[in-house]
Amino acid sequence: MKSPDASVPDSGAQATEGSNEPQYILVSRSWLEQLEKEKDQLKDRLLRALAEWDNARKRLDREREEITRYANQELFHSLLPVIDNLERAVEAAQQATSLQPVAEGLRMVWKQLQSVLEEAGLQPVEALGKPFDPFQHEALGEEIRLDHPEGTVISQLRKGYMLRGKLLRPAGVVVAKSPEEGEGSNVRKDAEG
């Protein structure tokens, strides 16, 4: 781009110092047209960049939606053999004359399911015999016990699970409680009662 000074004709009219009269700069028509052309080119480049950015954002949104939709595809693929084996176990149970083979088949399917879920990052929350932890356990009840310290989990009513270190569901537990004065008659001294 040319400097405006380069195309300003010398008019010989110069404002005097301290004068309040406006100063005018004369520019050539070609220089003005060149500035207009450059402005249009920059505007076009800006619009193209904005359109590219918008298209990239839309593409990323579609890809994110696709990833979310099929995120568990690998897990479900791993579960298909477990489903097949459960179907076989149900069919065998309908024809079985003894429950022993059915129970053994179900145990095998259960172990297979646990293995698949463990591989996917699912771990059970340890609860029984541990101190009550409100971040991993949900107290569903209390029981007065002398054979366990107060606050110890003495029974697990529902398993809790963690997925890659994040709690999915707390374990539902019963917690040992110390007897208060006068409550000695209902106290359990052992786990069997």
TrEMBL record:
InterPro entries: GrpE (IPR000740), GrpE_CC (IPR013805), GrpE_head (IPR009012). GO terms for cellular component: cytoplasm. Its main location: cytoplasm. Residues 1-21 are annotated as: Disordered. Residues 32-73 form a coiled coil. Keywords: Chaperone, Coiled coil, Cytoplasm, Stress response. Pfam families: GrpE. GO terms for molecular function: adenyl-nucleotide exchange factor activity; protein homodimerization activity; protein-folding chaperone binding; unfolded protein binding. Transmembrane segments: none annotated. Homodimer. Belongs to the GrpE family. Participates actively in the response to hyperosmotic and heat shock by preventing the aggregation of stress-denatured proteins, in association with DnaK and GrpE. It is the nucleotide exchange factor for DnaK and may function as a thermosensor. Unfolded proteins bind initially to DnaJ; upon interaction with the DnaJ-bound protein, DnaK hydrolyzes its bound ATP, resulting in the formation of a stable complex. GrpE releases ADP from DnaK; ATP binding to DnaK triggers the release of the substrate protein, thus completing the reaction cycle. HAMAP family: GrpE (MF_01151). This is Protein GrpE. It comes from Candidatus Methylacidithermus pantelleriae. The gene is grpE.
